[in-house]
Amino acid sequence: MSIPKHSLLSRRSRAIARLRRLAANMRHGFTFFASLTACLWWAAPAQAVPAFARQTGQACIACHVGGFGPQLTPFGRAFKLDGYTLSDGKKHIPLSAMLVSSYTHTTQDQTPFYNGMHANDNFIALQQASIFLAGRLTDHIGMMGQATYSQTAEPSNLAWDNTDIRYANTFSFGSTKGIFGVSLNNNPTVSDVWNTVPAWQYGFMGSPISGGIPFAPAMAGLGGTVLGTTAYTLIDNHWYIEGGAYHSLASRWGNLMHTGSWPISGYAPYLRANYSTTIGNSTYEGGVLGMNIKQPTITGGSGTDSIRDVGIDGTYQFINGDIDTVTVNGLYMQEKANYDQSAGLFPSDTAKMLNLNTSYWYHNTYGATVQYFNQTGTMALGSNAQTNGVVWELDWNPFGRNWANPEKNLRLGLQYTTYNKLNGTSQGASGNNSLYLYMWLAI
Hints:
mainly beta; Porin; 16-stranded antiparallel β-barrel; about 45% strand
């Protein structure tokens, strides 16, 4: 997503803008005509990472709501926690691809930010094109690795995207049983299995050239620019605890991966804990997450700034076989930034962010989602963070119910975003309202 420019935009905010746009651009894509040809040629069902469908022998709807990611079912969450290792015992090539083409219309013209962008009515043939290396490596080790090319990135390069390599095993102590594991990954919360956390929350696909949500917690902008290790455990299928730390990629590695590197001083600790339970067809989850980041100050001083992100989340999911699926997700986060005062500038910022969304799927084929987002407080050395609005989306997965060949999928989505306030004012906010149409193919 692109992020509106502010006169008070700091170095950190510009980094967030660039990294969030890159992260949003780094999940899926190829060309419109290639996608259309593929859809006609491979008229068959799908999976978010189809290599996993081939590996497990399961149809896409086993792991994903609507037969298409990233929204997970209980089976999909268990598969990930178990290290991506479930297999049908046969040999498979662990490769997949995602392709996205899109069209965006905004109420008012936008300022072009990449070569070839129009002020309005932008058709992006190659919004995102991803290649995945995903699957079982040993009995207890598996991975999901992604590289993405985007037409709207400047410069356009094949860049390192979400990657999660993990070891998992089971344990038991008397009547207590569970899973424990270790994840090596490049994006805080990418190891999580719930669609509340920043790496996996709605919107799953969004326009890279419209306003989007203009501010996100710092931890949401680290994807691809850091490397970290976390250890996790799930106890009695209810209690989940994960903890670890992240460090910036060295500049040479950031340049090699075409992601850049986030200037973290030392290591940034990360913690996640939640409780979940399933009653009948319904699953409930509630938890907390947090991260503390120190970075070279943006005030011009000689010290470091401290950024603390803390959040609470909750999920309700109802799955009635292949008929109805309802999911409700919520995440509230607060970011507190304390700035180095050796230069005597703005002391601190506090921003609060709320993301609520609910989706309904009928026969894993027809879907509707509504999201409400609200931000308050200050960011970027005192600039106003107040922004709120609603996203409306309709989706069609024409092969969501087809079990004949669970290796390919297609989603057609229509999304409309409305703004009540943007960056502290309602004046002109509606000019950023956008209509976004996309075609997303996974093979």
